[in-house]
C-alpha cells in the first residue's frame, strides 16, 4: 500500500544519519531528530486520523507522519523455534493459551492491549531448562545464520539514515519465559540455572555480532531489558552486577571494537538503582524513559552529564491533559535538546486516551520548538 504523508518532513540541511549521530554525541545539529516510539493497537482502530487513512501499524504511522528514518537489524538471538500459540481454554470474555515463550496466559478475548495474566511457566526447574535449551537455543540452528547479502541490499553503505544492531536481552526475555515471580524464585532456588540462561543469551548475541559487524557500519546498538517497574528493578542489584553486567561488557567490547559507542536499551520503570551498572556494562542510552516510573529526564542527564543519553521522556500523561500541559512540559525539555544527547518523544507507545487533536498539537509544537 502506498502511504501519503499527512505532513511535510521537518526541514533540515543534514541527513537523518548525520543528525542522529551528531545529536547522540553532543555535537551541533541543524535541528532535533524527529521520531516517535509508536501507538497502542487500539489507536489504529479508534483514532479517525488512522482508520480513515488506512494506517494499521506503527511502521505505516512513521511514514504517515513523515518522521526521520531510523532502522535496526534484528538477528535471531532468542528462542527458536518458539512455543506454538495453543489455546487451552476459552470463556465468554477470555482466552487461556500457551504463548510463544511457553507461558500459560490469560488474555481478554476482545484483544485490547493489556499485560496478560500469567498462570504458569513451562520452564521452572533445571531439567526444564536443559530440555528447552537443547531444543530451542541451539547455536548451530540454521536459522541463526544471517543472510548478509540480503541485508546489504536493504541497507546500502551509502544510506542516509541511522542503522542499529539489535543486541537482544540478557535478563528481560528470561523474565518473560519464567514470569516475574518465577524469576524471583529461580534466582534463589536455581542461581546456576539462571546464570546459564544469561550466558546462553549472551553467546547467541556474540555469535550474531561476529557475523554482522564485519559487513556493516552501524551507528548504534539497541536492546530490550524490561526489568524495572515503578519501585525499581525486579532482580536484585547484586544479581544484576555479578551476573548480567559481565555479559554486557563482553558485548560492549565487540561493539566498541567495531566503532559503535552508542548502545540504548528499552527498559521501562525506575532504572536509577541499576543505571550505574548499565553504564559500566556499556549501555549509555535509555529508551523510551518513562517519566512517571522514574524521573524527569533532566535529573539523570544532569547527574550523568556527557556520559548518558536519553531517547523518549515526553510524559504521555501531559499529552492527555491538553494543550497547556503539553506546552508547559515541552518547555522543560528545551535545554536538554539544545545541549544534545537527548531525543524527545512520547515515553512509551502513545495510548488511545490521548486525543488525536492533542497529539497533532504536540507534533506541531515539537516541530515549532525543536525543528529549529
Which structural category fits the helices and strands?
alpha/beta
CATH hierarchy, class of the largest domain: Alpha Beta
Helicity range:
40-55%
Q: Give me the count of strands.
A: 13
- Annotated CATH architecture of the largest domain: Alpha-Beta Barrel
CATH topology of the largest domain: TIM Barrel
Q: Which sequence of strands runs across the widest sheet? A: 1-6-7-10-11-12-13
Q: Proportion of β residues? A: 5-15%
Distance from first to last alpha carbon: 33 Å
- Describe the sheet with the most strands: 7 strands, parallel
What is the rounded Rg? 21 Å
**Mean pLDDT, all residues:** 95
Question: Your description of this structure?
Answer:
The protein has 372 residues and is of the alpha/beta class. Helix content is 41%, strand content 13%. The protein is built from 15 helices and 13 strands. The strands form 3 sheets. A 7-stranded parallel β-sheet has the order 1-6-7-10-11-12-13. Strands 2-3-4-5 form a 4-stranded antiparallel β-sheet, covered by helices on one side. The longest helix is centred in the middle third of the chain and has 22 residues, at 191-212. The protein is globular and about 60 Å long. The two termini are 33 Å apart. The mean pLDDT is 95.
Short précis:
With 372 residues, the protein is an alpha/beta fold. It folds into 2 domains: 16-81 and 122-370, TIM Barrel (Alpha-Beta Barrel); 84-121, no CATH class.
Explain the layout of strands and helices.
Elements: H1 16-24, H2 43-46, H3 48-51, H4 58-64, E1 71-73, E2 86-90, E3 94-98, E4 103-108, E5 117-121, H5 126-136, H6 148-154, E6 163-166, H7 172-178, H8 180-189, H9 191-212, E7 220-224, E8 228-229, E9 232-233, H10 237-257, E10 263-266, H11 275-281, E11 285-287, H12 297-303, E12 309-311, H13 316-321, H14 323-339, E13 342-343, H15 356-370
Parallel strand pairs: 1-6, 6-7, 7-10, 10-11, 11-12, 12-13
Antiparallel strand pairs: 2-3, 3-4, 4-5, 8-9
Helix pairs in contact: 7-8, 8-9, 9-10, 10-11, 14-15
Amino acid at each position: 500500500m502506498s502511504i501519503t504523508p499527512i505532513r511535510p518532513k521537518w526541514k533540515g540541511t543534514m541527513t537523518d544519519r548525520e543528525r542522529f549521530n551528531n545529536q547522540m554525541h553532543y555535537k551541533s545539529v541543524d535541528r532535533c531528530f524527529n521520531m516517535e516510539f509508536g501507538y497502542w493497537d487500539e489507536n489504529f482502530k479508534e483514532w479517525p486520523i488512522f482508520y480513515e487513512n488506512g494506517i494499521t501499524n506503527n511502521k505505516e504511522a512513521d511514514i504517515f507522519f513523515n518522521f526521520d528514518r531510523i532502522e535496526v537489524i534484528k538477528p535471531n538471538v532468542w528462542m527458536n523455534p518458539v512455543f506454538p500459540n495453543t489455546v487451552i481454554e476459552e470463556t465468554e470474555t477470555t482466552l487461556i493459551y500457551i504463548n510463544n515463550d511457553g507461558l500459560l496466559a490469560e488474555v481478554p478475548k476482545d484483544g485490547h492491549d493489556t499485560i496478560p495474566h500469567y498462570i504458569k511457566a513451562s520452564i521452572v526447574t533445571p531439567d526444564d531448562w536443559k530440555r528447552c535449551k537443547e531444543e530451542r537455543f541451539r547455536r548451530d540452528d540454521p536459522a541463526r545464520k544471517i543472510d548478509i547479502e540480503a541485508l546489504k541490499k536493504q541497507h546500502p553503505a551509502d544510506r542516509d539514515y541511522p542503522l542499529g544492531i539489535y543486541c537482544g536481552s540478557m535478563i528481560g526475555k528470561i523474565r518473560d519465559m519464567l514470569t516475574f515471580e518465577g524469576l524471583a524464585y529461580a534466582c534463589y532456588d536455581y542461581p546456576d540455572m539462571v546464570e546459564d540462561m544469561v550466558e546462553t543469551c549472551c553467546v547467541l548475541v556474540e555469535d550474531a555480532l561476529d557475523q554482522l559487524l564485519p559487513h556493516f557500519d552501524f551507528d548504534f546498538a539497541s536492546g530490550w531489558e524490561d526489568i524495572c517497574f515503578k519501585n525499581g528493578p525486579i532482580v536484585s542489584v547484586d544479581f544484576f552486577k555479578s551476573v548480567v553486567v559481565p555479559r554486557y561488557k563482553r558485548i560492549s567490547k565487540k561493539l566498541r571494537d567495531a566503532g559503535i559507542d552508542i548502545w540504548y536499551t528499552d527498559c521501562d520503570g525506575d532504572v536509577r538503582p541499576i543505571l550505574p551498572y548499565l553504564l559500566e556494562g556499556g549501555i549509555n542510552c535509555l529508551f523510551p524513559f518513562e517519566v512517571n516510573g522514574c524521573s524527569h529526564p533532566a535529573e539523570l542527564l544532569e547527574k550523568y552529564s556527557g556520559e548518558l543519553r536519553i531517547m523518549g521522556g515526553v510524559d504521555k500523561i501531559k499529552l492527555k491533559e491538553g494543550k497547556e500541559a503539553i506546552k508547559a512540559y515541552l518547555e522543560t525539555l528545551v535545554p536538554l535538546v539544545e545541549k544534545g544527547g537527548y531525543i524527545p518523544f512520547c515515553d512509551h507507545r502513545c495510548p488511545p486516551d490521548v486525543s488525536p487533536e492533542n497529539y497533532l498539537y504536540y507534533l506541531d509544537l515539537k516541530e515549532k520548538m525543536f525543528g529549529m
